[in-house]
TrEMBL record:
Subcellular location: Cytoplasm
Family in the record: Belongs to the class-II aminoacyl-tRNA synthetase family.
Protein name: Asparagine--tRNA ligase
Organism: Terrilactibacillus tamarindi
Assembly, per entry: Homodimer.
Keywords of the record: Aminoacyl-tRNA synthetase, ATP-binding, Cytoplasm, Ligase, Nucleotide-binding, Protein biosynthesis
Chief place of localization: cytoplasm
EC number of this enzyme: 6.1.1.22
Record-level GO BP terms: asparaginyl-tRNA aminoacylation
Annotated Gene Ontology cellular component terms: cytoplasm
Length: 431
């Protein structure tokens, strides 16, 4: 028995193979049954011709229900009309289990129903394709940073403090003291950069924001590189090269998945570094020219503002040099202009908003102490962070890319909830 997977059938054209599958759907045309099969690696059509199989196999196939599991044996045929380019001429089937009353049928279902059945919704071709693209972005992330000599370091998920002094934290008890779920690994990655030079982390982060927008999740994954001896301009180059690499990797390795979700790849094909840049000052002027009279210098941008800015460019755009007052305490002021910092947000096209936030970090001990006082960061849990500036401080920069927002943009998805296998939303922690 030659056992394989749907993703590898191209290696066995005109050969008989056996594949473990689930039935996604089926239709019948008299003496032919068409089985839409999936195995986790892909989808393929199995064609069952009555006169070419045993009576037992024919009857078993007739009684197959959606999501029933089986082993299917068949001859691999090349078929350019098929989405995968191949088809299976079925010669025999071996039923593992008949599924009964599978709740997600080919008819339309409401979002809440589908989210309640997320554990099953993942099996659909669209959700399958989205999460395969997510996987490719993760794979390409490791390839990019490994190729550029970064070391992966894992920051803790339980922390004694907030990375940005935020109150939007999930609190827990750590034996006899307070602890929080991490909202960023950045501070720890700065410590790692002082040991290894160039590092990155990839892990879950948590924000207790009571937000219901299509861009927000309560639990999400971040890629957070930190680089010693690296200034803001050098960091921007790394950021745009990284994002370009992700897009090109998805285009190269996920063409079938992009086709499954009907993504307009012409919009992705143009995503190549370098990316345009606009200062916060000029962004304010741009917004006022576009009719946003309510925005004033010193205010942060909301989703409509970010969308309006991005619409003025064909590529992702860096908005640089935000006001010091609205950014985190650790960001380095621009020399000669203390009211703004050396930072940038990367806004994705098509209204997907910020996918990267980054900055050059303060490397001066006295200035960081001053920032501590201004932000009332008296907690001794921050003591170790100050010490990074006390023992061999160097210029350093870093950034964080939100995985789910990036997946949403690459896939052209309206709501971020489809980018996570099991999304955590304001009113959802099931399944």
């Amino acid at each position: 028995m030659l056992k394989t997977t749907i993703s590898k059938v191209s290696q066995y054209v005109d050969q008989e193979v056996t594949i473990g599958v689930w039935l996604a759907n089926k239709r019948s045309s008299g003496k032919i049954q068409f089985l839409q099969l999936r195995d986790g690696t892909g989808f393929i059509q199995g064609v069952l011709v009555k006169k070419e199989v045993s009576e037992e196999a024919w009857e078993a196939a007739k009684h197959l229900t959606q999501e029933s599991s089986l082993y299917v044996k068949g001859l691999v045929r090349k078929d350019d009309r098929a989405p995968s380019g191949f088809e299976l001429t079925v010669t025999d089937i071996d039923i593992i289990q008949y599924a009964i009353d599978y709740p997600i049928t080919p008819k339309e279902h409401g979002t809440e129903f589908l989210m309640d059945h997320r554990h099953l919704w993942l099996r659909s071709s669209r959700q399958h394709a989205i999460l395969r693209i997510r996987n490719e972005i993760i794979r390409a992330t490791y390839e990019f940073f490994n190729h550029h000599d970064f070391i992966k370091i894992d920051p803790p998920i339980l922390t004694g403090s907030s990375a940005e002094g935020s109150t939007d934290l999930f609190h827990t008890e750590y034996f006899d003291r307070d602890a929080y779920l991490s909202q960023s690994g950045q501070l720890y990655m700065e410590a790692a950069a002082m040991a290894f030079g160039k590092v990155f982390s990839f892990g879950p982060t948590f924000r207790a924001e009571k937000s219901k927008t299509r861009r927000h999740l309560i639990e999400f994954w971040m890629i957070e590189p930190e680089m010693a001896f690296t200034d803001h301009e050098e960091s921007l180059v790394i950021q745009e090269n990284y994002v370009s690499f992700l897009i090109q990797s998805v285009l190269k390795n996920c063409p079938t998945d992009l086709k499954t979700i009907d993504r307009d790849i012409s919009k992705l094909e143009k995503i190549k570094a370098p990316f345009p840049r606009i200062t916060y000052d000029d962004a304010i002027k741009l917004l006022k020219d576009k009719g946003f009279d309510d925005i004033e210098w010193g205010e942060d941008f909301g989703a409509p503002h970010e969308t309006a800015i991005a619409e003025s460019f064909d590529l992702p755009v860096f908005v640089t040099n935000y006001p010091t007052a609205i950014k985190a305490f650790y960001m380095k002021p621009q020399p000669g202009r203390e009211e703004v910092v050396l930072c940038a947000d990367l806004l994705a096209p098509e209204g997907y908003g910020e996918i990267i936030g980054g900055s050059q970090r303060i490397d001066d001990l006295e200035l960081l102490k001053k920032r501590y006082e201004e932000h009332n960061l008296t907690d001794p849990a921050y003591k170790w962070y100050l010490e990074l500036r006390q023992y061999g401080s160097v210029p350093h920069s870093g950034f964080g890319l939100g995985l789910e927002r990036t997946v949403a943009w690459v896939c052209g998805i309206e709501h971020i909830r489809e980018t996570s296998p099991f999304p955590r939303l304001l009113n959802r922690i099931y399944p």
